[in-house]
Amino acid sequence: MTPAEILDACAAGRLPPPIALMHLIGATRSADDFAALVAQARATDAAPVQTLCALALRNPACWRLTHDMLATVAHDGSATIDQLATMFDDAVALSPAASVALYSMGDEAALDGATQDVIALMRAAGLIGQGRTMLDLGCGIGRFVRALAPEMRQVTGLDISRRMIDEARRRCAALGNVRLDVTDGRDLDGVADDSIDVVLAADVFPYLVQVDLALAAAHVREAARVLRNGGAMLILNFSYRGDAERDARDLRDMLAATSLRQAALPSVALAHWDASPFLLRKME
Ligand SMILES: C[S@@+](CC[C@H](N)C(=O)[O-])C[C@H]1O[C@@H](n2cnc3c(N)ncnc32)[C@H](O)[C@@H]1O
Q1: Fold that domain 126-282 belongs to in CATH
Q2: What are phi and psi of 279, to 5 degrees?
Q3: Is 140 touching ligand 1 by the criterion CB < 6 Å?
Q4: What separation in Å is there between the alpha carbon of 139 and the centre of ligand 1?
Q5: Does ligand 1 have an atom closer than 6 angstroms to the CB of 117?
Q6: pLDDT digits (tens, 9 = 90+) for 192-209
Q7: pTM, two decimal places
Q8: Ligand 1 center to residue 11 CA distance, Å?
Q9: Cα–ligand 1 centroid distance for 44 (angstroms)
């Protein structure tokens, strides 16, 4: 998208302001070009564009941080699990908040807002409750683990990045019902069959797909194995291929060999993020 198309989509409500800001930064070649665009955009009446400009002005380092992060974690082309683990180790050292949600621009308050959006969606889908267990696949710095552990019986977070898990352990140190482990990224080995009520996969499937579709399919099968009957998996973003029909088709093919079925999503909009959600239920 060109900068004009991004600003139009933001003004029309098709792109949340933080996401539009991230695309705008990605589409500009220098911090000066970006600053000039923001100065122009400030004359626009549309409230979402005003929000975008306010976010940019509040965070003068956002252009540099976004480009550094995009140079650290590859989102296109193929990658191995080990390469991705190293990329995320480096990313979390640059900025913990931006390493898990680039659109937060490294701002912890903005990240919390996006986290609470997802939790509102999970709550509306009936996924949260005191007696329940949750597995956060690709948990990153543990933002969902930390936010949800007080409302769940047990929460496990797995990630391929040692530094992500170190950061998650630091953030969740006060919580007694949390387990955080480095995984080899190939499966959910170590998680017992029929032991989990909710599997959350927030922005992790794109990296499984980036390794290859077989790895994504293996994780869908593994989710079916570890979930209790009636349990649910919430996938936020299946890939970054930019083809919603292909994502839906590939996921449907993966489900065919499992006890997971697609379920209706509650109509809760994410204000900070443009993730595509998929809700799956284990039906034996
Ligand atoms: C964009 S971050 C999202 C982190 C977290 N889900 C969140 O939303 O805050 C993607 C995470 O997935 C992890 N990851 C990538 N491939 C993985 C795999 N095969 N198994 C487990 N984690 C993986 C990365 O290390 C990284 O922490």
Answers
A1: Rossmann fold (3.40.50)
A2: -110, 125
A3: yes
A4: 6
A5: no
A6: 999 999 999 999 999 999
A7: 0.95
A8: 31
A9: 37
